[in-house]
Design brief:
Elements lengths: L2 H19 L16 H5 L7 H19 L4 H19 L14 H4 L1 H24 L5 H27 L6
Helix pairs in contact: 3-4, 4-6, 6-7
């Protein structure tokens, strides 16, 4: 296990703890929620094995479902996100391609690419999550408002975490 794998594992554990302990209890006006655990899936290296990412997304979704008592809602949204991540990554791939084992973070990819990558993926995850939770399209406009507000709130929190903790080079 190399240092980048260790860093990813530690980062994932921290995101899961933050999600379960802090962000689980935050709901702004009952329409805005934050699901930073999604960043674990989206920040995995772009060249990582697809099956491994799907398994990781499944495990992360199950862990969140256990704490939220949501019976597979987070698991299904996380696995769909992991599945679509490959296709979206291929669509927005620059002409020269990516470096091997590069993590798609703000520092290495820049704000424009980061937001182009994250915002649609967060929207798909939240859309799947909230409409599955609602059991259909009965409260379409209210659920869509939750999706949009939660997408932007989650993006802002992930962006702040990226800026505060991962954007500077650290000296030893």
């Amino acid at each position: 296990m190399n240092s980048s794998s260790t860093k990813l594992i530690v980062q994932s554990v921290i995101f899961l703890i933050l999600q379960v302990v802090i962000f689980r209890n935050i709901a702004l006006l009952d329409v805005t929620f934050c699901f930073i655990y999604v960043a674990i899936i989206l920040l995995l290296p772009l060249e990582m094995d697809r099956i491994l990412i799907l398994v990781i997304a499944f495990i992360i979704g199950l862990i969140i479902d256990m704490f939220y008592n949501s019976f597979g809602v987070h698991t299904s949204a996380s696995v769909l996100l992991a599945f679509l991540r490959f296709y979206w990554g291929n669509i927005i791939t620059p002409q020269g391609g990516y470096e091997i084992n590069i993590s798609p973070n703000l520092k290495t990819m820049g704000f424009q690419w980061f937001s182009t990558y994250f915002l649609p993926m967060l929207f798909v995850h939240h859309f799947t999550l909230f409409f599955t939770e609602a059991g259909g399209f009965f409260l379409f406009w209210f659920t869509l408002l939750k999706v949009i507000m939660s997408t932007f709130f989650t993006f802002l929190v992930i962006l702040l975490i990226q800026i505060l903790f991962f954007s500077r080079k650290r000296g030893i």
